[in-house]
Amino acid sequence: MKVNVNNKIHEVDSTCYLTELLQSLLGDAIQGIGVAVNDNLIPRSQHGSYKLQENDRILLIKAAQGG
């Protein structure tokens, strides 16, 4: 199935969970990453149980220091 990650289409298995997608895209570099699916923030504690659906819009946001 297809999902949209930061405005780029990605093909994933129909049984893909959010954690699997993040690992395939980012590897171990998921620290400091915020995730929203269809404009809803998904807490890190739910990444492993959040099953993706066809055409989900996923936004990955990297935390940055600054002021």
From TrEMBL:
Highest taxon of source: Bacteria
CDD domains xrefs: Ubl_ThiS
NCBIfam families: thiS (TIGR01683)
Protein name: Sulfur carrier protein ThiS
Organism listed in the record: Sphingobacterium olei
Taxonomic lineage of the native organism: Bacteria, Pseudomonadati, Bacteroidota, Sphingobacteriia, Sphingobacteriales
Gene name in the database record: thiS
